[in-house]
Amino acid sequence: MSAEQLTGADILVRCLAEEGVEHVFGYPGGAVLYIYDAIFKQDKFQHILVRHEQAAVHAADAYSRSSQKVGVAIVTSGPGVTNAVTGLATAYMDSIPMVIISGQVPSTAIGQDAFQECDTVGITRDIPKDITMHTCAYEYPKAVEMRSYKPVDKGHSGQIRKALQLLLSAERPMIYTGGGIILANAAPELNKLVDRLGYPCTNTLMGLGAYRSSSDKFVGMPGMHGTYEANMAMQHSDVLIAIGARFDDRVIGNPKHFASHARKIIHIDIDPSSISKRVKVDIPIVGNVKDVLQELLTQLDTAETRQNGEALDAWWKQINEWRKRDCLKFATSDEFIKPQSVVQKVWEVTKGDAFITSDVGQHQMWAAQYYGFDKPRRWINSGGLGTMGVGLPYAMGVQMANPDATVACITGEASIQMCIQELATCKQYHLTPKIILLNNRFLGMVRQWQQIDYGSRYSESYMDSLPDFNKLAESYGHVGMKIEKPGDVDGALREAFAMKDRLVFMNFITDQTENVWPMVKAGKGLTEMLLGSEDL
Q1: N or C: which end of the chain has fewer CB within 10 A?
Q2: 115 pLDDT band (50/70/90 cuts)?
Q3: Catalytic residue flag (residue 373)
């Protein structure tokens, strides 16, 4: 039987269907019209028409982050591709799997400065227009093997045994985990390990929800805006096990300061290039963290050695002393809405069970600090690249992947305007996230750094002209709310989240003077934290 004859565009669409793709985010243009014509003739997946290519890629990114599916986006050539670059870089920095399909001018026109041509090699691989037009035999492969990509899944048993022996001999152990736990779906194994050992655990910004925040063994987030107890425990531990984390500069601060305290380090990661990249490691283990943790737990079952209970009790006593600093405490007000209290109320109203997306800035850090995540894949943010404008497209992608879930986007008045046109996409596809705008009329994190490091010279950080967000939301067919008094916060949130079938845009007018504390300034060590304005 001869193979079916299909065009390149038909083959592409058929392959997406064969892979079980359910949703594709995109924006049509001349170079991809053959693909869009093939999409029109199929019924296996739904296409989501965004209003800007950057939003298509961000939405596909969040689709992947919030589920075990792979997000897909389609953009045209030239400006379509360049508009997608920020989204590609955002996903790449956080190791998010994603498929982006870009158009290109015909092969004969490449290099001729053709209309809407740009060199996208190195960003993505092109599908030239003439390939999508022409026909060829189609037969879907049963298996695909990439000679250049054969990651090690199973960790070395001997190295895992050494790691366990070191962990059990520790007097001041610390478990430090990152986004790799979530990407590997290894949260169940991590929770078992922490509970079995009884050791303190910290999750990075990308790892929040990997170990449940409601446990007393969770000491909070580490790093630049991490808790006092997490940073002190990271610095003063004698054995540190890093799992799916990469010792980012925003986590350990100054590497020389971090290395000034002697400790043994175990590092588990599927990417060998991440191990000993920034910090020298004593026991490297290359492998899928889920597989490695499963073997570690198996070896723990039969281990003859047990942890030093007396030393561990003393270590917890010290950590609890650090906890008494209550570093996340903030002053309440009857006059001004405190942004931290809004996040706390969102957690209360949603019972801690929502998907939370954020943009980048102060609101992002407050969301990370004050919304306790007990489940993985519930916290969706741009960690590595720090991309403003992702919050609303992220909420779209999350809701497409999790249609019955409660989704909230915590954002700022600067970030939300970068992709605010996607309110139209939400209307068209009946997407109903709740937008929690913490509006302090500033580029908040910029203002905070200017206050601390630049003598309060607020150069171009004040938002002098803002739209009426209520009317703007309503003009797109959504519900708008403006909340100005602390006493109205709880009722407004409950009213908004009760509207299951509506997107509600909530504009909270917050205290302009609030900063994110604690803070480790750039170039400083983990123990050199500013805990409040009194430390300035």
Answers
A1: N
A2: very low
A3: no
